[in-house]
Amino acid sequence: SQRVTYKTFRQYRVLGKGGFGEVCACQVRATGKMYACKKLEKKRIKKRKGENMVLIEKQILQKVNSRFVVSLAYSYATKDSLCLVLTIMNGGDLKFHIYNMGVEAGFDLERAVFYSAEVACGLECLHNLGIVYRDCKPENILLDDHGHVRISDLGLAVEIPEGDLVRGRVGTVGYMAPEVIDNEKYTFSPDWFSFGCLVYEMIEGQAPFRARKEKVKREEVDRRVKEQAETYSDKFSDDAKSICQQLLAKRPQDRLGCSAGRHGAEVVKQHSFFSSIKWKRLEAGMCTPPFMPDPHAVYAKDVLDIEQFSTVKGVNLDTNDDQFYQRFNTGSVSIPWQREMIETKCYEELNVFGPGNTPTNDLRMDLPPPPEKRGCFNFTRKKRR
Q1: What is the predicted pLDDT for the residue at 308?
Q2: CATH superfamily ID and name for 6-89+303-342
Q3: CATH 1.10.510.10: which residues of the chain?
Q4: Which of 274, 272, 261 is nearest to 124 (CA)?
Q5: What is the pLDDT of residues 199-220, one digit of tens each?
Q6: Where is ATP bound in this sequence (predicted)?
Q7: What sign for the dihedral angle of Cα 332, 335, 339, 342?
Q8: Distance (Å, rounded) from C-alpha 26 to C-alpha 8?
């Protein structure tokens, strides 16, 4: 119930940058728990009319509680920024690993299958809540310290009421489904197309419709997505080629997972590409990842290479913005907060009747020790002035 402010945390090094500001490591002073703090600059939000997008991301993150999607633990505001305190993912993103960590780009099939399975579980969680993600790509899939992956950056996600359709030409060029490019109505089909692009890129070492660093106009990439069939090298097994072909079908009605609505993940998970996955163990976090990040390595661009944000000019904040800030600045999120208390053993320390302190009829055990036996701490109340 305590108010959460910037003083709740210690701030550490910059980890990267987002659309509205930088992302840095932070630590809760009271418990020592590490998180990632995503800072959204107020003036930058206002200049780009991003209030609705920022609020939707915060509200969606608050609803999701999955080991395959980054969790929101706290949200608070400073004078200049709105801050989302999220699960820290020290292992870098899949794009970095695909292109920078091997002799040649891409993963072996075992690793691609494992990451694909965990991402499919993340999409399943979102779809079950009626949320379409709309931005599934390697940059948005992050590794934790143990080698598990989570979906991040839900800025383009939207909640679809039961039985409704949405429309919106949003996403990343080369990963957007044909129905998104054509601005048609849809439900969850774009996520399965983008997921197909992700699986393809992990195996091939390049995206299906645009080579890495290829200079090509957006219109040409969109044309390829809508009209051109992807090609497959000998890196693909029969099962890998099969699932990619079914996920990258141009028409939603022909695409794997799209006929089952919110339950499309169940169909995708039954594909023979995932025959080695024991789903119950994976969902419980009991499967050993094929790659373990080195705790001493930094799996990201050099911080010095991260572009500095320019100063936003010509934008003034006023009292009309306060209502939006109040809806954003809601403090701690209950389930991640409870998990933090358990993981950091704070709950045991706060619990009067913890191990060895079973209640008795001796009422004196509930009383605090006298001041002289409290070490360097003095708990006596100050007199009111």
Answers
A1: 54
A2: Phosphorylase Kinase; domain 1 (3.30.200.20)
A3: 95-283
A4: 261
A5: 999 999 999 999 888 888 999 9
A6: 47
A7: positive
A8: 10
Q: Which member of 80, 93, 108, 135 is catalytic?
A: 135
**Bridge pairing between strands 22-28 and 9-17:** antiparallel
The residue among 278, 284, 268, 267 whose CA lies nearest residue 66 is 284
Q: Does 47 show up as a binding residue in the annotation?
A: yes
Provide the residue type at 104 as one letter.
E
Neighbours of 197 (CB within 10 A): 25
In this structure, of 88-92, 99-103, 245-249, 319-323, the range with the lowest mean pLDDT score is 319-323
Q: How far apart are CA 343 and CA 364, in angstroms?
A: 31
Global confidence as pTM: 0.84
Q: Which fold has domain 95-283?
A: Transferase(Phosphotransferase); domain 1 (1.10.510)
Sheet strands (E) in 87-151? 131-132, 141-143, 149-151
pLDDT tens digits along 230-242: 999 999 999 999 9
Confirm whether 135 is a catalytic residue.
yes
